[in-house]
Design brief:
The chain is an alpha+beta fold. It has nine helices and 19 strands. The chain has an eight-stranded mixed β-sheet with strand order 6-5-13-14-15-12-16-19, covered by helices on one side. Strands 2-1-11-18-17 form a five-stranded mixed β-sheet. The two termini are 32 Å apart. Bound molecules: flavin-adenine dinucleotide.
């Protein structure tokens, strides 16, 4: 069957759903893409900032990487500081290949670049359109949509992709389990715009025992601080006068994943299938990776292999983010003292920092076989 003849519904136009649509469209499919929201995420309320080398490799055939690199800035160093002492510094430029390990660009910008690329294939997200029910009772998955005018539409599709985030309606409707656990404490974040440019080249985690305050560059004059401490804002030493506090939020960290990413012709990708801590900046990147693999497998007629090919990558990333999160959130004085002794030694071992760097780059998951020379 020619690609365009398989009907595909993608639920959710976040970075995962948009990427799935783009990768399918450039291979000759005409997917339908619906989202319950009224448009892409607002630019100042972007959760994800870190775009890794794997994502840039995956988005190179569609040329979205070129556009991303025009807008993003490279994070050249990651530092871990404790009691005014630098425990460890990771040079993120020391990775082979065409890209640095990690770049910063707010998720809202990434989503808008994907929407522009998708418009070249005349695919537009249908905003304000939500999935209300999905059933596998007939040979093809049947979906009920609520449209912007309040009317209902029920239709069958050859393939349904649930890219509808952590609270996925598709996942719940089809009865995928989502086992895992949540950390007891909450995390807090605030973004500040300064009256002048700040150094955007490094990210830093200050360990304040117990707890941490992370400093992440968002733009040349915007920093994000993220912390385990509710009163963290009073502890920030700003690098320049604050012009504006742009956004603040708090969230709990869950580590959860589905046991299979497919049932019949319904597939899950991105946060709909796995959620974890933002440590390591992996969530959005992993969702983009899922989307690219699924689109490629569908185009090869091999989508049945999707879950078994992706689950090992999901487990690798969950393990890495859990390890980093435990390092940043230790509470007992004995463990924090031990950590402060061991971390500097570990980072001086080339094999350890190289492994960490491969993780930050996203190169610790299988490389895409459809892209020549990909790591
Ligand atoms: C503080 C923080 C910082 C982070 N930083 C990073 C980072 O630096 N790098 C990184 O890679 N990741 C990061 N992440 C994780 C990242 O934000 C998520 O993994 C990513 O947004 C997931 O994308 P997604 O498209 O799968 O889901 P989402 O972005 O949640 O998109 C899901 C879409 O589905 C739509 N939807 C929901 N229900 C329905 C329905 N019933 N019908 C139709 N549409 C529906 C929603 O409107 C939404 O647009 C961070 C997360 C947090 C909390």
């Amino acid at each position: 069957m020619a690609p365009g003849h398989r009907s595909i519904l993608i639920v959710g136009a976040g970075t995962t759903g948009l990427t799935a649509a783009l990768e399918l469209a450039r291979r000759g499919f005409r997917p339908r893409l619906v989202d319950s929201d009224v448009g892409p995420v607002p630019l100042v309320e972007s959760r994800a900032l870190g775009v890794n080398a794997r994502t840039l490799t995956l988005l190179s055939p569609s040329r979205v990487s070129d556009a991303l690199l025009q807008e993003a800035h490279q994070l050249k160093q990651f530092r871990m500081v404790s009691k005014n002492r630098t425990l460890a510094a990771l040079d993120t430029t020391r990775i082979s290949g065409p890209y640095g390990a990690l770049y910063a660009l707010a998720q809202g910008h990434t989503e808008r670049l994907l929407i522009v690329a998708l418009s070249n294939y005349e695919v537009t997200p249908e905003w304000h359109t939500s999935v209300e029910a999905v059933s596998l009772d007939s040979p093809k998955p049947q979906v009920t949509l609520r449209k912007p005018d309040g009317s209902e539409e029920t239709a069958s599709f050859d393939i349904v992709i649930g890219a509808d985030g952590a609270h996925s309606a598709v996942r719940r409707a089809i009865g995928f389990g989502f086992p895992g656990d949540a950390l007891e404490s909450s995390f807090y974040l605030a973004d500040f715009r300064y009256t002048r440019d700040i150094d955007p080249n490094f990210a830093e985690v200050s360990l304040v025992d117990p707890g941490m305050i992370g400093r992440l560059p968002v733009e040349r004059d915007v920093l994000r601080y993220i912390s385990t401490l509710p009163d963290f804002e009073s502890r920030i030493v700003h690098p320049a006068p604050v012009a504006e506090r742009l956004w603040a939020s708090d969230f709990r960290i869950h580590f959860r994943h589905v046991e299979t990413m497919a049932k019949g012709s319904v597939f899950l990708a991105g946060d709909a299938a796995h959620i974890h801590s933002p440590a390591g900046a992996r969530g959005m990147n992993l969702g983009i990776e899922d989307a690219c693999w699924l689109a490629w497998l569908i185009s090869e007629g091999r989508e049945r292999e999707y879950s078994s090919l992706r689950m090992p990558a999901v487990m690798t990333v969950l393990k890495q983010t859990r390890m980093l999160t435990s390092l940043f959130t230790m509470k007992s004085p004995l463990s924090t003292a031990l950590r402060d002794l061991v971390v500097p030694v570990l980072f001086r071992i080339p094999a350890f920092s190289q492994k960490l760097l491969r993780g930050v780059s996203g190169y610790d998951t299988p490389s895409p076989p459809w892209i020549d020379g990909a790591q």
